[in-house]
């Protein structure tokens, strides 16, 4: 199956996509570098492990509380302006943390508030950014979407390493790096020339806009399928990772070994994302999703016989190697079937629904590890993935859903300041 390559885009659009890609990569790198040390700062400030949970919960709460608002705004406002504003707001939040640590004036209230604001700002950036993709690329460009997925996995690998190294030098440095990354990302977004403003023929109330996004997802069988699948796969992967960490710890694995498992998982995701365009060219999308889904079940079930940390890392790496194959295909089709003026809301609905169940995954993993054997834990995760694989197999025919009319990326982009 042929896909559109960035090399076939006009120089104007290819340049803007590179800026968009770089902005997202730098943002992700800075965020991962600071988030890995945020719990350490919370403990250092309060001396209480409970504070870690409070700060982490508020960071997630900021994203979830802001999501309905940012989803609507992303389909109303100029998306480039919204992305810049969100990035600079997040920069201010991390700048406050860095400055307070530097002057030794940080208190838990400031840390928690900054985490909440940063989470809300990230929601705004992601909503507007999701809406912008269809303006920058044809929706069937699997290669470009795979590059974005690979970029995110690379940030997951390098960010914690950078954050840990900077934290060893000074506690405020990871947050200064995050501040700088947000500013650089904002500069990159500001340099994008393509008109990212959503084209809308009529205005409705805020609540009406929110309902329109929810109704569109609920009324599209394919989008309903993607929403349920994404929520299930995020929950399953989060529970699996936490279970592997807890089981490895109970078996006496060193923190370095456990960290290596997580690194291997991210490397697997990176390699899988890089391989996705070639796989999609050789296999039908429907077949790719079905094969990848059931193969993940097999690899997780194989954890039943895994006894060493390295074997856990190998099998988890193989699972994460396969997941981008399905994820990129489904993302491309979701972008294609969604009209331009609903892109932000639809992406936010799918992302938020996928994130909420993930919050409960650590609790489930802890309960399972505490009360049943590692083999039962592995089989439980495999059973959940088997349900999702069956669900995907039954619904994979929905990939033939017609695209939304009037793809804005089919036309030559214009300036946001001077739309033609």
TrEMBL record:
Pfam family, one: MFS_1
Protein localization: Cell membrane
Record-level GO cellular component terms: plasma membrane
Any one GO molecular-function label of the UniProt entry: transmembrane transporter activity
Major facilitator superfamily (MFS) profile domain span: 1-398
Presence of keyword Transmembrane helix: yes
UniProt keywords, alphabetically: Cell membrane, Membrane, Transmembrane, Transmembrane helix
Chain segments annotated as transmembrane: 20-45, 51-74, 86-117, 222-247, 253-274, 286-306, 312-334, 346-369, 375-394
InterPro entries on file: MFS, MFS_dom, MFS_trans_sf
Membrane topology: Multi-pass membrane protein
Domain of life: Bacteria
Protein known as: Predicted arabinose efflux permease, MFS family
Organism for this UniProt entry: Actinoplanes derwentensis
Taxonomic lineage of the native organism: Bacteria, Bacillati, Actinomycetota, Actinomycetes, Micromonosporales
């Amino acid at each position: 199956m042929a896909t559109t390559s960035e090399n076939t885009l006009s120089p104007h659009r290819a340049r803007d996509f590179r800026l968009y890609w770089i902005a997202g990569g730098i943002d992700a790198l800075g965020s991962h570098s600071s988030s890995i040390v945020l719990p350490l700062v919370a403990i250092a400030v309060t001396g209480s492990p409970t504070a870690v949970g409070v700060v982490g919960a508020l960071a997630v709460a900021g994203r979830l509380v802001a999501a309905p608002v940012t989803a609507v705004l992303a389909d109303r406002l100029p998306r480039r302006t919204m992305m810049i504003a969100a990035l600079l707001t997040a920069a201010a939040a991390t700048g406050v943390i860095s400055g307070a640590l530097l002057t030794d004036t940080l208190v838990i209230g400031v840390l928690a508030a900054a985490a909440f604001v940063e989470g809300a700002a990230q929601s705004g950036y992601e909503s507007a950014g999701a809406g912008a993709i269809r303006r920058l690329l044809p929706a069937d460009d699997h290669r470009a979407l795979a590059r974005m997925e690979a970029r995110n996995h690379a940030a997951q690998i390098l960010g914690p390493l950078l954050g840990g190294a900077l934290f060893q030098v000074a506690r405020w440095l990871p947050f200064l790096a995050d501040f700088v990354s947000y500013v650089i990302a904002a500069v990159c977004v500001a340099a994008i020339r393509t008109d990212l403003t959503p084209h809308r023929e009529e205005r409705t109330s805020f609540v009406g806009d929110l309902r329109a996004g929810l109704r569109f997802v609920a009324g599209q069988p394919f989008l309903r399928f993607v929403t349920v699948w994404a929520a299930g796969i995020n929950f399953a992967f989060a529970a699996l990772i936490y279970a592997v960490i807890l089981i490895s710890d109970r078996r006496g694995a060193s923190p370095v070994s456990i960290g290596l498992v997580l690194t291997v998982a991210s490397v697997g995701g990176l390699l899988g994302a890089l391989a996705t365009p070639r796989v999609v060219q050789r296999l039908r999308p429907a077949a790719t999703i079905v094969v990848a889904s059931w193969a993940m079940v097999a690899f997780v079930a194989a954890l039943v016989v895994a006894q060493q940390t390295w074997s856990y890392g190998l099998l988890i790496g193989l699972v994460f190697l396969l997941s981008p194959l399905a994820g990129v295909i489904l993302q491309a089709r979701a972008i294609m079937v969604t009209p331009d003026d609903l892109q932000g809301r639809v992406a936010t609905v799918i992302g938020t629904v996928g994130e909420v169940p993930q919050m409960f995954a650590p609790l489930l993993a802890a309960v399972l590890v505490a009360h049943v054997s590692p083999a039962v834990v592995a089989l439980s995760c495999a059973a959940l993935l088997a349900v999702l694989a069956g669900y995907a197999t039954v619904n994979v025919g929905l990939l033939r859903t017609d695209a939304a009319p009037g793809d804005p990326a089919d036309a030559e982009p214009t300036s946001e300041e001077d739309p033609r």
